[in-house]
Specification:
Elements lengths: L1 H14 L2 H7 L10 E4 L4 E3 L13 E4 L2 H6 L3 E2 L10 H18 L6 H8 L3 H12 L3 H17 L5 H7 L5 H12 L3 H5 L6 E9 L2 E7 L4 E7 L2 H11 L4 E4 L2 H15 L15 H11 L7 E2 H7 L6 H10 L11 E2 L12 H13 L2
Parallel strand pairs: 2-4, 5-8, 9-10
Antiparallel strand pairs: 1-2, 1-3, 5-6, 6-7
Helix pairs in contact: 4-5, 4-7, 5-6, 7-8, 13-15, 14-15
Length: 360
């Protein structure tokens, strides 16, 4: 009877410890903060261990693995608590894969990357996307795009720049150059030379507004207090482009955009010239799917694009958005519903959200 009473007491002590709930939930976030040992098996584990849950009366908690080993317990062969946390191991493997991609002359295959880091191809693909927000192929393309941008400013010819950036065939790069650079390589190399962008600056309830349109569609909707600053911002984006002040016909388009800013629920039936990395474009697409009058958190967006750990990268993509309201980064809020930073000012964000909620 005394033994049974002692077992009940041990179980109660374990179950009242908040760490037990984390063990039962196999909470990976607790890994590294504590370990638990099991008297009946003589092993110690991470909180996230996938082994069958032990009886609570057999469990003891330890602050460090050294403490667990000093108590006579050996590491579990399943969760390997004597090795770095799984998340850290994955991050190391993904970082190694990124270095391989960046150093390769040709695009490595998924299989070769997986073999190099020692895990299966499907598992590697999943954790790579989870940690970087991109598939290995998309990461490789984005990296080469950055190299092309750099090489276009250094090499004597566009073809040389493309080859030096790792593209074996210039024709293959030209097939996607508009998506990668927003224009042809030659125009990009010349700072947008020969690209014609019409623009006009007006006023709306949020202050000054600049609307710019390329041959592909609306490429900028900028908000601010100083019209001159908005014009300089556009010039910085396209330093050598042919910037043309809008005529009467273009003023009608600006009026349409202003009307949309004043009443976003009406929608904007105009093509957009969206330029950004593969990851940014995924985020911006997700933003366009948030209905007027509703909000989503950065975590929500990360989950929607299949990259739950890329919350900070999502915030960065929102900050890089240059097409205000049409790509509604103002509808993204903190997890607690509070307003965070907004490229065009938190008060403008508050005004837009209030206006949309009132019109919902």
């Amino acid at each position: 009877m005394a033994t049974a009473s002692r077992q009940t007491c041990l179980a109660s002590t374990t179950e009242s410890d908040p760490r037990w709930a984390q063990v039962m939930a196999r909470d990976a976030r607790a890994d590294g903060y504590f370990f638990y040992s099991v008297a009946s098996t003589g092993v110690y584990c991470r909180p996230s261990c996938g082994a069958r849950h032990p009886r609570p009366q057999n469990v003891h908690f330890h602050a460090t693995r050294e403490e667990a080993e000093a108590a006579g317990f050996r590491p579990c062969k399943r969760c390997k608590p004597d090795q770095p946390p799984l998340a850290e191991q994955y991050a190391t493997k993904v970082a190694a894969a990124c270095r391989l991609i960046e150093a390769a002359d040709t695009l490595p295959t998924l299989g070769s990357l997986a073999v190099a880091v020692g895990i299966s191809a499907s598992h590697f693909h999943r954790i790579f996307k989870q940690l970087t927000g991109l598939t290995p192929r998309a990461y490789a393309v984005a990296h080469r795009a950055r190299r092309v941008r750099n090489e276009l400013g250094r090499q004597a010819t566009v073809t040389t720049a493309i080859i030096e950036a790792g593209f074996n065939s210039s024709s293959r790069f030209y097939e996607t150059s508009n998506e990668v650079l927003g224009m042809t390589p030659q125009k990009f190399r010349q700072g947008g030379a020969a690209a014609t962008i019409r623009f006009a600056i007006g006023q709306c309830s949020l202050g000054a507004i600049l609307v710019a349109q390329s041959e592909r569609g609306i490429c900028a909707i900028l908000l601010g207090d100083d019209p001159d600053a908005l014009a300089h911002d556009l010039q910085d984006r396209f330093p050598n482009a042919n910037l043309i002040g809008g005529d009467a016909g273009f003023e009608k388009l600006v009026a349409q955009v202003v009307g949309f800013v004043e009443a976003p629920a009406l929608g904007l039936a105009l093509p957009l010239d969206i330029r950004g990395t593969a990851f940014q474009q995924r985020v911006w697409q997700a933003l366009q799917e948030i209905p007027a009058g509703q909000t989503a958190s950065y975590t929500d967006i990360a989950n929607r694009i299949g990259s739950p750990t890329a919350v900070r990268a999502v915030a960065g993509a929102c900050a890089a958005n240059a097409i205000a309201v049409a790509i509604p980064c103002h509808r993204v809020v903190r997890n607690d519903g509070g307003l965070s930073g907004y490229r065009w000012g938190v008060e403008r964000k508050r005004t837009l959200l209030t206006r949309e909620a009132d019109n919902d």
